[in-house]
Amino acid sequence: MKITNIELIPIYSTREMGRTCPSDSEKAVSHHIIVRLQTDADITGLGEMSDINFDLTPRAVNGLADRLEPLLVGRSPFDLTAIQVDLEQQEWEHQVLAGIDIALHDAIGRALDVPIYQLFGGKYRERIPFAYPLAPCQIEADIEANLQRIETLQAQGHPTIRYYFGADLTLDERFLSQLRTRWGDGVEINALDASGRFDVETAIDVIRRFTPFKPNLVESPVKGRQNAPIEDFIAVKQAVEVPISEHASEAPAAVRLARHAAVDVFNLGVGYSGMTACQKTFGLAELFGIKTLLGSTVELSIGTAARAHLAAAMPNLDFPCYPSGPLVYYEQVVKEQVRYEAGHIIVPEGPGLGMELDEGRLAAQRL
């Protein structure tokens, strides 16, 4: 089986959250690239470059395809390692390697007539606990907007959230106070995500201030995030009771954080270098005794399915994960989107990703 063509299809999708803040009536819009790797065996591998922030003009997309074709066309998807090594010799925009890697895995799974999780050692778990992302409160109206979103999630049977905080700590505290007053422990706060806002001293003070709201962990507490000085992470970790998490999506950052026991939890992601690279960082975390969760850039169903397959095969998954795009976006481009049930992602079945494009929906979302 040889790859005969690569097709990159730029699309948009509309988020349920406001463009500038949770209460904004104008909705946020994300851009993605759907990848189709066609082969001479009449098998097409699907991939997704999710929520990208680079130029999607026809010239830019065609230029990206022109760069990828010599590295892919004429090769077998089963030569996965050799292709990955060749791809990693060049610099790519965020999500490019992930989109291609997902499509290669999908093609292999379809050729073997097995779900992708079988390529990573088989299904260790049937479903993946997830946390829905809530944007930070920036104005008074955002408090009620976020509470209403939780109300909807509760009605759907989804109890867990991830809250980005720190834009306005007073509003954050009022929002979280009302959350606990209304639902008590019925809402699980998996993470308070500081997005690298604070210096060390402020991070310690803020985490202590918000510990009574019972977050499972605090993410990216210090400026510089995964590139911050190791001493900053250690100082915060030693001063607070809540576990500290940081993105460790690429091997150098993961090795650096693990070697110094700088954090308690790795937020691991497919979006930087793909599924295989992410599996390696899961293994690194296991060796060093660091807990894990699987992160997200807010994907559509193709990207979400890839992450669900990988998570299903990883034995050391310790906290609810973040892929929730099929609940976030109004539009989808597949016939049947990834399903969610009782606070969990249901791992798709079927060969490969278990996803099939809906050509009508794809055309409607095309840029």
Write a brief caption for the model:
The chain is an alpha/beta fold and about 375 residues long. The protein has twelve helices and 13 strands. The protein folds into two domains: about 5-115 and about 360-365, Enolase-like, domain 1 (2-Layer Sandwich); about 120-345, TIM Barrel (Alpha-Beta Barrel).
Characterize the structure shown.
- The chain has 367 residues and is an alpha/beta fold.
- Helix content is 38%, strand content 20%.
- It has a 7-stranded parallel beta sheet with strand order 5-6-7-8-9-10-11, with helices on one face. The protein has a 3-stranded antiparallel beta sheet with strand order 1-2-3. A 3-stranded antiparallel beta sheet has the order 4-13-12, with helices on one face.
- The mean pLDDT is 96.
Distance between the termini: 31 Å
Gyration radius, to the nearest Å? Answer: 20 Å
Output the CATH class name of the largest domain. Alpha Beta
How many strands appear in the DSSP assignment? 13
- CATH level 4 superfamily of the largest domain: Enolase-like C-terminal domain
CATH architectural arrangement of the largest domain: Alpha-Beta Barrel
Judged by helices, strands and strand pairing, the structural class is: alpha/beta
| Rounded mean pLDDT score | 96
CATH topology of the largest domain: TIM Barrel
Helix-strand pattern, N to C? EEEHHHEEHEHEHEHEHEHEHHEEH
- Number of separate structural domains: 2
Q: Which percent band covers the strand fraction? A: 15-25%
Largest sheet: 7 strands, parallel
Shape: globular
Q: Order of strands across the widest beta sheet?
A: 5-6-7-8-9-10-11
